[in-house]
Design brief:
The protein is of the alpha/beta class. The chain is 46% helix and 21% strand.
């Protein structure tokens, strides 16, 4: 439900039929309604009738407004609301204002309402839905018994009427205005007698009534009627003419005039004006209701953003326009991570406020040509015309930065994170529905990406035929022995001695040739096939290096999240080590920060058991995850591996502060530091100057088979010695 965090006190200067200084303008009404559309209806109708209003989203907020802005002359309240019901609200307000007038606007029927509440002389109720006339009549009845009603009525000034007179005879126009003044109207009028002057008058302000002559020198009354209706289809239009024939009257009414009066019979004018004003008010009400229904059909009531229907329409239009000029259109779909917990913990009131604040922040970071929409729940979407994938990713980063600032709800600061998926036209789909589906797939992939956003890639789509085929091929590859290991050495930067090797999985695919982990590991992880691969990797890695007295000190194997959270992992590793008569300290298991943080309790349990067995542990790709330094202190790890993205940055003169501080942090925690992705001697020297312990990368050695790497290590040892 929509909620406003500050009171909205609104007053319109000149609504239709509003008194200029009337009695109603002095009445102050407090509205307490939790339904956004109902609250807007009540506020609009009362303001349009000249009342001063203050809107509250529930009973608690209404109570606060009463204390800050009261006293109010009348309370218009729903019966059932969050935090504080209408009944409780009335009880509390009457502790300081016993005579407060109350109008209950409720979905309960008459008899049920009487049974639940009962009504005093200062109370009335309206059943939802009610018409404007019923609402205003109920308000008027209650206020008529207000202690100040007679005083305010005696001070009232008659209704102001803005009248546009279309007549080339000034005296006849004045006669019509005078007749209305004599009847008690406060007339503000303007006379025009040419199409140009009429257009200027219509553009200048809104009119309550138009009175036109049927026959003029420069143009006719029916022509004037056409111009007026083009500008305002609802304003009352009365033809006052010297032509007394029936034909002129029929033509005027057929053209859309409300009434036709002969100039010599102005005694009928006042009664005709009153009927015309009532008819015009009804037309305006119907027009507003229709416009509101159309608006709500294409917009989200909570955030006022375009909804899914309007988003798809605009996306189709953007795609057609882009196709004509050979440009790209990007669609970004975003949802809030952990939003369900906010609703479950703090309630939907808090959740709705966060959604409104998120909508406001999204609007603040996009261009005027972009569209921000709410798809429903905690999902939003952005249409980015003339934007390729690089531009879309830049926008995604801006959005995520905008959401980093805490959201304040009821005085509490709440952190909200999001995931964004990106799809592009025409690369990822030919139409709006397809683009939305692909962006949705990318969004769920982004949840596992440290950046928080991801562009659609067919090979990562769980619904593509290629992906389904890959799942089958993975299992066949395991059965047919197509997977093998290569090893990359880890070099001590001070002694230049190899202190370990990392096992790297490869797939000798029968059709696609040699595949690297990025080509298949994500699918293996998501489908659970990784649980079949990991034992093979561990067994081969331990077997390749356990029996060589000159082999590297440790062999490192990467674990997946599924492996780390499997309760039997420590037992299986223990069995493998015992079967190969290998010391546990020769095995190094590498895990990432995100793997640990995805389930800290189970991760810590598993890591602690492995550490107690003597297996060595390393944090891989450090710096790309979400772990806190305080949490890192408690992890039973031996080694920290700096992600290659930071090491590569050293070649450009970037990330020196990050690398240096990471080395210092690790050493303060008693950890060994290994840098990944070293590509030249200069980076090696820089890392050594920072105090980094070891490094690996293509500059030191490309990945090799176990036999080839043993030969390389032996040759290097000879050279060093």
């Amino acid at each position: 439900m929509a909620h406003h965090l500050t009171p909205e006190v609104t007053e319109r200067a000149r609504p239709l039929h509003e008194p200029s200084q009337s009695s109603t303008l002095k009445w102050h009404i407090l509205i307490a309604e939790d339904d956004p559309s109902e609250r807007e209806f009540l506020d609009f109708v009362l303001r349009d009738a000249g009342y001063k209003t203050c809107r509250a989203v529930d009973g608690q907020e209404a109570l606060e407004f009463a204390r800050q802005l009261g006293p109010f002359d009348l309370l218009l309240t729903d019966l059932v609301m969050p935090r504080l019901s209408g009944i409780e609200l009335v009880e509390r307000l009457r502790q300081t204002d016993p005579g407060l007038k109350v109008l209950y606007f409720t979905g309960f029927g008459d008899r049920l309402f009487e049974e639940k509440v009962g009504l005093s002389e200062n109370e009335a109720f309206l059943e939802k839905p009610s018409s404007i006339e019923e609402l205003l009549a109920a308000v008027a009845r209650l206020l008529s018994s207000h202690p100040q009603a007679s005083e305010r009525s005696s001070n009232a000034i008659l209704p102001r009427l803005r009248v546009l007179l279309i007549d080339d005879a000034e005296d006849e126009a004045d006669a019509a205005a005078h007749a209305l003044k004599v009847a008690g109207y406060d007339v503000v009028s303007e006379r025009v007698d040419t199409p140009e002057a009429l257009h200027a008058a219509l553009e200048g302000q809104r009119w309550d009534l138009v009175i036109a002559d049927y026959t003029m020198r420069h143009f006719s009354g029916t022509t004037a009627l056409t111009l007026v209706r083009d500008w305002d289809s609802d304003v009352p239009f009365i033809v006052v003419s010297a032509v007394a024939g029936e034909e002129a009257a029929v033509m005027s009414l057929k053209a859309g005039a409300d009434h036709y009066i002969v100039k010599g019979n102005l005694t009928r004018l006042v009664a005709v004006v009153e009927r015309a004003l009532r008819g015009g008010a009804v037309r305006r009400e119907h027009t507003r209701a229709g416009e509101r229904l159309v608006y709500l059909a294409y917009h989200d009531a909570l955030t006022d953003l375009p909804n899914r229907v309007l988003l798809l329409d605009r996306l189709e239009q953007a795609a057609l326009a882009a196709h004509r000029v050979h440009e790209s259109v990007s669609l970004a779909v975003m949802d809030l991570d952990g939003f369900k917990e906010v609703n479950d913990t703090l309630g939907h009131y808090a959740g709705d406020q966060i959604l409104q604040q998120v909508a406001a922040r999204l609007r603040s970071v996009v261009r005027t040509v972009d569209t921000v929409a709410r798809l429903g729940g905690d999902e939003f979407a952005l249409i980015l015309p003339s934007t390729d994938v690089n531009g879309a990713e830049q926008t995604a980063r801006k959005v995520l930065r905008a959401l980093e600032r805490p959201f304040v709800v009821n005085g509490r600061a709440l952190a909200v994170r999001a995931s964004i998926g990106i799809a592009r036209f025409p690369e990822d789909g030919p139409n709006a529905e397809t683009l939305l589906q692909k962006a949705d797939v990318a969004m769920y992939l982004a949840k596992g990406d440290v950046s928080g956003y991801a562009a659609y890639a067919p090979e990562r789509d769980p619904h593509t035929h290629r992906r389904l085929a890959l799942i089958t091929e993975l299992r066949q590859g395991i059965d047919h022995g197509q997977f093998f290991l290569e090893y990359q050495p880890i070099l001590d930067l001070r002694t230049r001695v190899v202190v370990g090797v990392e096992a790297l999985l490869r797939w000798r695919h029968p059709e696609q040739g040699r595949l690297l982990p990025e080509d298949f590991l994500e699918v293996a992880e998501q489908t659970g096939v990784v649980n079949l691969l990991t034992p093979l990797v561990l067994e081969q890695a331990i077997g390749d290096w356990h029996g060589d007295p000159n082999s590297a000190q440790t062999v490192a194997v990467n674990l997946s999240p599924r492996n780390l959270h499997h309760p039997q992992l420590p037992d299986r590793i223990d069995e493998l080590l015992r079967a190969r008569h290998t010391a546990p300290s020769r095995l190094m298991l590498e895990i990432t920060e995100n793997q640990i943080m995805s389930d800290p309790v189970r991760s810590m349990t598993c890591l602690t058991r492995l550490r107690e067995m003597g297996v060595r542990l390393a944090i891989d790709d450090f710096g790309t995850g979400y772990s806190s330094l305080s949490y890192l202190r408690h992890l039973p790890v031996d080694q920290l591996k700096i992600d290659k993205s930071f090491v590569i940055g050293l070649m450009r003169g970037d990330d020196e502060v990050i690398v240096r501080s990471t080395v210092d942090l690790a050493h303060n925690l008693g950890l060994m530091v290994v840098a990944e992705g070293v590509e030249n001697e200069a980076v090696c020297d820089r890392l050594l100057a920072f105090g980094c312990d070891a490094a690996q990368g293509v500059f030191i050695s490309e990945p090799r088979s176990a036999a080839a790497l043993r030969a390389w290590i032996a040759k290097r040892q000879e050279e060093v010695s």
